[in-house]
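dumping this here before i forget
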Amino acid sequence: MIGNHARSDGTGAWPSIHTLAKESRLSDRTVQRCIAVLAKSGELRVSKSAGPYGANLYAIPGVKLSPGGVKLSERGCQTDALGVSQVSPNPSLTVPKDKERILWAIQESQRTGIDADTLLAQKKDLTMG
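structure:
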């Protein structure tokens, strides 16, 4: 589910635990445990409080877009016993429309040290004025 919120290179995802739980039909606590297991195995990078409004920022290392449009890891696409891919084919409908603007602010904030919310407000003032 985190992949539904990420860019095609696997970076820039910041869904809440509750959002992931709702999308995956799991409890919040189960999602927390899954994230911990994925982070420990190296399948997921978690940057604590690095996203907008202090959200955790997630990245899926080694993700690339295949010619068919399916996201594959460097280890290959994982399948279940029947050979069905574990990759979700549809993007999430809960991703904010201004995600690229927010990602820009996060990256610019990390580069300049200026708060991301301040940068977003400044950019909004420039486009409206």
